[in-house]
Amino acid sequence: MIIEPPPSPPPIPSLPPDPMTRKRRYVTWLSLSLMSFMALMVVIVYEARWVYPEIQAYFSQTGNLTGQQLATRSRGYLQLAQQHLLSEQPFEDEQRQAVRLNLDIAYGLIDVEVYRQKYSCTQASLQTLNLLAERLKEYAVTPFDAAAELLGPIDCLTSIEMNQLDLRGMAINEFSESTRRHNQVLTYSSMVIFALGLLFWGMHERQLRRTERATEQTMVWMQQAMRDPLTGIGNRSALHQDVAAKEGASLALILVDIDFFKQYNDSLGHPEGDQLLRRLASLLKHVLGEGAKLYRLGGDEFAAVLPCDDDALLVDYCDQLTSALEQADFKHPSHPDNERVTLSIGGVRFIAGETTFPSAYEAADKALYQVKSAGRDDWHISEAA
User: Fold this and answer.
1) What are the C-alpha distances in Å from 80 to residues 95, 96, 132, 295, 342?
2) Closest CA to 226 of 12, 14, 7
């Protein structure tokens, strides 16, 4: 039977983030999202607090520019008075009263503070209307002359209307420009907040990847610290750790020592000695099966831990190992008693946790020492530890 050297240890797979890491990652991302959303809402509320009064002022019926156009209504009453004055019908008292009524209404509509302050023609127009009303009352003016005198106030009111329209246009343009500026502020602020959110997320992901890489490297180092670099199987530290993890299980501990290994190295060289160690590790794995955990304890000493419910099974394992070694026929030119490699094997069965591992190891080591004392090339089982 040809025993090939065991393959190199498989690479340690990347570890997925543990639940706590995923939870922290979720909470962090959720927090950043909420912060970005709240910042965006603050900007929107701020902009709304600006634009609402502007809209109210523009569309309100109490504003000077967008309220009822008093000048327009006043001009309408003056033109209605002109129609009565220039009517083809005789100018009777009834029409005279209607003209005076229209003049009084027009006077009240134009007699406002904003008109008197902003338009110089307002005061003159008010005086004209007041004087014309008195003259009509005293029959001191003809209808045609009265209609002609109304042209001045009508022209003044027309100028006021045109200026009011210009002011309204300017207000609309200013409102539109201000709205555009604030829309830009809202847009750019949203973009900045979104970019900051992406930046925070990227920084978080970068830190998370660093943490995961550090964790993976730590796990790789820990795994490497538990392996024998020559054979790829576990070392003494791994042996203690694995036994501690199987508390309550019925286990067998098998210690294996290569007979006259120093003479093997002296005659064939250390590279061949290393090759023999790798072949023996492969042989142990082949004979004891996948359920066995293998360890190199140092030099030419190996250990195996495997499930075992009774001593008969442990005896069977030792017999199989001896038979497999004979079939492998590893040559040993410097063996004083044999031409091939032989082993000294000691074993013990124990219950993990009930028996301390040092006690089990001591029992197996005593069994191995008995084999060596008796001439090597044999196995011995110690009583259950």
Assistant:
1) 11, 12, 15, 118, 135
2) 12
What domains are defined for the chain?
1-225 (no CATH), 236-381 (3.30.70.270)
| DSSP state letter for 234 | B
Q: Which residues contact 302 (CB under 8 A, 6 or more apart)?
A: 255, 256, 257, 280, 281, 284, 294, 295, 296
Q: How crowded is residue 357: how many other Cβ atoms within 10 Å of its Cβ?
A: 18
Entry pTM: 0.49
H helix and E strand count, the chain: 12, 5
Nearest alpha-carbon partner for 239 in 162, 306, 167: 306
Query: Using an 8 Å Cβ cutoff, are 357 and 243 in contact?
Result: yes
Which amino acid type is present at position 131?
L
**CA gap 292, 304 in Å, rounded:** 6
Alpha-carbon distance 258 to 39, whole Å? 73
Confirm if 179 and 51 have CB atoms less than 8 A apart: yes
Of 360, 356, 354, 258, nearest to 305 by C-alpha is 360
Q: Element (H or E) spanning 169, and its range?
A: helix 151-225
Question: Residue ranges of the chain with pLDDT lower than 70?
Answer: 1-30, 32-34, 36-37, 40, 43-68, 220-224, 384-385
| Cβ neighbour number for residue 59 with a 10 Å cutoff | 9
Q: Are the CB atoms for 63 and 57 separated by under 8 Å?
A: yes
Query: What is the pLDDT, as a whole number, of residue 171?
Result: 78
Question: Rounded to an integer, what is the distance from CA 98 to the centroid of its chain?
Answer: 80
Pairing of strands 343-351, 250-258: antiparallel
